[in-house]
Structures are given as C-alpha cells and as structure tokens.
Amino acid sequence: MLSRRQLSHAMVPVVENLFRTSGLEPFIYQPNEKKPRDSFIYIGERCNVAGSILYKKAIVAGDYDKALAIAKKQVEQGAHMLDINMDD
Q1: Which of 10, 28, 54, 79 could form an SS bridge with 74, CB 3.0 to 4.6 Å?
Q2: Can you give the C-alpha Rg of the chain in angstroms?
Q3: How far apart (Å, rounded) are the C-alpha atoms in residues 19 and 72?
Q4: What confidence tier does 2 reach under pLDDT thresholds 50, 70, 90?
C-alpha cells in the first residue's frame, strides 16, 4: 500500500479531453474540423419500445430476431451507437 507521502508525488496521467463511451467496443469521438459532416455521431434510436411500434411488437412477441434485425439495420445505415430502451 502506498503511503500518503508517496501518493502526493504520484504522476497524474494526461488524457486528451475527448468524448468516450464503451459497450461491446470502445467509441472515442474525435471531431474533424476540416470535414464537419464527418464529426456527427449517429445514434440509432429505433430500439425503443416506447417510441417504435415495430420494435415493441417484436419484443412483446418474443421475436428477438426481428428486434435484432431492426438494430442491425441501423448500424448498417451508419449508426455509431444504439440507444436501446426497454422501459415502456
């Protein structure tokens, strides 16, 4: 265990101030000032039982393959991350 004296001299790492999220894969947002359109973060919002009738019907029916297809389509269309909401 480190003593208080050792902790006061500990090096604090310098970390670049970026938006970071994690899930199955890390996502680190890096804005592109030369190409602002490349700086958008696309968030898929169709995996929401309160906002998507198709998704809700699939979940209620236990048709998880259909729910997964909805999520997968959003990623294929360019979503960087998905907002999944199972609370009705």
Answers
A1: 79
A2: 20
A3: 24
A4: low
Query: What pLDDT digit, counting tens, does each position of 76-88 carry?
Result: 999 988 999 998 7
In the chain the first and final C-alpha atoms are separated, in Å, by 48
- Separation of CA 3 from chain center: 39
CA of residue 77 relative to chain centroid, distance: 15
User: Among candidates 77, 86, 68, 79, which has minimal Cα distance to 25?
Assistant: 79
Q: How far apart are CA 81 and CA 28, in angstroms?
A: 11
Q: Nearest to residue 83, comparing CAs of 26, 25, 44?
A: 44
Q: How far apart are CA 30 and CA 45, in angstroms?
A: 22
